[in-house]
């Protein structure tokens, strides 16, 4: 009995020591650092409503999922590197941040807009959210803008692929920053569709590829 108790104590001590040596968990967000509002963006007479963003289940995990290579299907969960919220909420918050600043419009996602107030409803369906070991970060999405009570506004649905290189190899923070940039570029491309009244979308940069749009 003494031997069993002694071995049990050793096992417990080893387990506690292992827990004590576990690396700390780091939390990341896709929301960019706070920025001052652009000086020359006038307030508009419409509001925006961003629906909850849908993301692929394999990417929608608390831990960051690292793809081992561009042509490799293997995903590695980084248990010490996690998102501060669900991935859909992270992307939605980052999109809202850029859209409201770029357009000068209020987001009424959780509020009921006043009757007859013009609203652009935005839906984003993410098909691919890749953080590739060594870069790049890739964001594929189908998105739609739809006018409600907007005079001469037209609905538009588009597919986009955004790829942003990572600055450093095998550094999670660099990949997160690249995805932050990818979300900003996607938001600016969506904003261009709203600014055109749904007539067309303009890629925000050469890192954005439009796969086609339809009314």
Q: Can you summarize this structure?
A:
With 215 residues, this protein is an alpha/beta fold. The protein has 3 helices and 8 strands, in the order H-E-E-E-E-H-E-E-E-H-E. The longest helix has 24 residues, at 172-195.
Folded structure, characterized:
The chain has about 220 residues and is an alpha/beta fold. It has helices at about 1-20, 85-105, 170-195, and strands at about 25-30, 45-50, 65, 75-85, 120-130, 135-150, 155-165, 210-215. Strands 2-5-6-7-8 form a five-stranded mixed beta sheet. The protein has a three-stranded mixed beta sheet with strand order 1-4-3, covered by helices on one side. A hairpin with a 5-residue loop joins strand 5 (about 120-130) and strand 6. It is globular and about 60 Å long. It starts with a helix and ends with a strand. Mean pLDDT is about 85; it is low at about 1-20.
Helix content: 25-40%
**Overall mean pLDDT score?**
86
Enumerate the spans where pLDDT stays under 50 for 5 or more consecutive residues: 1-18
Name the beta content range.
25-35%
Number of strands: 8
Q: What can be said about the biggest beta sheet?
A: 5 strands, mixed
Spatial shape: globular
What order do the strands of the largest sheet run in, or round the barrel if closed?
2-5-6-7-8
């Amino acid at each position: 009995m003494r031997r069993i108790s002694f071995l049990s104590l050793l096992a417990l001590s080893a387990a506690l020591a292992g827990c004590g040596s576990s690396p700390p968990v780091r939390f990341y967000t896709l929301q960019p650092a706070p920025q001052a509002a652009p000086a020359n963006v006038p307030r508009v007479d419409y509001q925006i409503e961003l629906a909850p963003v849908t993301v692929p289940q394999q990417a929608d995990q608390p831990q960051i999922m690292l793809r081992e290579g561009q042509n490799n299907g293997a995903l590695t969960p980084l248990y010490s590197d996690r998102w501060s919220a669900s991935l859909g909420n992270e992307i939605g918050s980052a999109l809202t941040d850029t859209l409201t600043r770029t357009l000068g419009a209020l987001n009424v996602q959780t509020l009921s807009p006043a009757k007859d107030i013009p609203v652009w409803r935005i839906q984003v369906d993410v098909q691919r959210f890749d953080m590739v070991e060594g870069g790049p970060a890739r964001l594929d999405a189908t998105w739609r803008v739809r006018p409600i009570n907007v005079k001469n506004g037209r609905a538009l649905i588009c597919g986009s692929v955004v790829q942003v290189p990572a600055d450093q190899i095998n550094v999670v923070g660099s990949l997160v920053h690249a995805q932050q940039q990818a979300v900003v570029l996607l938001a600016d491309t969506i904003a261009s569709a709203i600014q055109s009244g749904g007539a067309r979308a303009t890629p925000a940069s050469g890192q954005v590829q439009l796969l086609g749009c339809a009314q």
